[in-house]
Amino acid sequence: MLIITLIITLILTITGIILYVANRYKQKRAETLGLPPEPEAPEIPDECCGQHEVCEKDSLLAAVSRDIEYYDDEELDKWRGTPSDQYDDEQCALFRDVLYTMQSHEVAGWVRSLQLRGIELPDEVKDEVLLIVGERRS
Q1: How far is the C-alpha of 133 from the C-alpha of 60, rounded, in Å?
Q2: pLDDT tens digits, residue range 21-43?
Q3: Which of 3, 13, 60, 101 lies 20 to 30 Å from 48, alpha-carbon distance?
Q4: HSE-up of 38 (CA within 13 Å, CB side)?
């Protein structure tokens, strides 16, 4: 039994030494050839936890989160219950003002917040929202 333990220890030690020497050789060769260092593992942005196939922060579904968050858009609450095809040009402009004053990573959360508050996006603004969210996903 002792011999088997010594053999395993010897094999592991030799493997470790070989891997160390190979890594040092690779680093020295990269320095000699002037190659850039290997990139670090990519960091997951703050807005995404990385644990889901599709980031929940980019989801437009109100079922993802029940928290209502306001985006300096309290004035839109007066259109709660208004159908999406019943907005006039001035009202659509107010929705666009809010949309284009926020960061692109906030748009999906804003749409979720509107859904939770019972506010439908004007039909004229929906395509713009989908374009912004789609660009963030790709």
Answers
A1: 9
A2: 998 888 888 778 776 665 554 45
A3: 101
A4: 7
